[in-house]
Design a protein that fits this description.
The chain is mainly alpha-helical. It is 84% helix and 0% strand. The protein has 2 helices and no strands. The chain is flat, with a radius of gyration of 12 Å. The relative contact order is 0.14. The mean pLDDT is 68.
Amino acid sequence: MHIKLQIIFSFFIFHGVVFQSVAQKHDYNWLLADGVLSIDSFLEV
Protein backbone atom coordinates (compact mmCIF):
# COMPACT_ATOMS: atom_id res chain seq x y z
CA MET A 1 0.00 0.00 0.00
CA HIS A 2 2.79 2.39 0.93
CA ILE A 3 4.57 1.68 -2.36
CA LYS A 4 1.38 2.38 -4.30
CA LEU A 5 1.07 5.75 -2.55
CA GLN A 6 4.64 6.59 -3.59
CA ILE A 7 3.81 5.66 -7.19
CA ILE A 8 0.71 7.87 -7.15
CA PHE A 9 2.71 10.73 -5.63
CA SER A 10 5.37 10.38 -8.33
CA PHE A 11 2.63 10.30 -10.97
CA PHE A 12 1.22 13.59 -9.66
CA ILE A 13 4.67 15.22 -9.89
CA PHE A 14 5.32 13.84 -13.39
CA HIS A 15 1.91 14.92 -14.69
CA GLY A 16 2.45 18.34 -13.12
CA VAL A 17 5.72 18.76 -15.03
CA VAL A 18 4.10 17.65 -18.27
CA PHE A 19 1.17 19.97 -17.61
CA GLN A 20 3.43 22.98 -17.12
CA SER A 21 5.42 22.09 -20.23
CA VAL A 22 2.46 21.86 -22.62
CA ALA A 23 -0.05 24.18 -20.93
CA GLN A 24 0.81 26.96 -23.36
CA LYS A 25 0.26 24.75 -26.41
CA HIS A 26 -3.02 23.07 -25.45
CA ASP A 27 -6.33 23.80 -23.83
CA TYR A 28 -6.07 24.08 -20.05
CA ASN A 29 -9.40 22.36 -19.39
CA TRP A 30 -8.50 19.45 -21.66
CA LEU A 31 -5.26 18.81 -19.79
CA LEU A 32 -6.96 19.07 -16.43
CA ALA A 33 -9.68 16.61 -17.45
CA ASP A 34 -7.06 14.28 -18.96
CA GLY A 35 -5.11 14.30 -15.71
CA VAL A 36 -8.17 13.52 -13.59
CA LEU A 37 -9.28 10.71 -15.90
CA SER A 38 -5.77 9.24 -15.96
CA ILE A 39 -5.54 9.28 -12.16
CA ASP A 40 -9.01 7.76 -11.78
CA SER A 41 -8.14 4.99 -14.25
CA PHE A 42 -4.87 4.30 -12.45
CA LEU A 43 -6.56 4.06 -9.07
CA GLU A 44 -9.11 1.58 -10.42
CA VAL A 45 -6.36 -0.83 -11.52
